[in-house]
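=== Per-residue structure ===
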Amino acid sequence: MTDNNTFLGNIEAEEAILGGILLDPQAISIVADILPLVR
């Protein structure tokens, strides 16, 4: 989030990624290589 509390993400995309990982735990290794690390 930014200083003005504006969410700059995509909830649907996050849900899809997390859902896929729940269905196939081995998918985390693929996802971790593709998605950037956000701090």
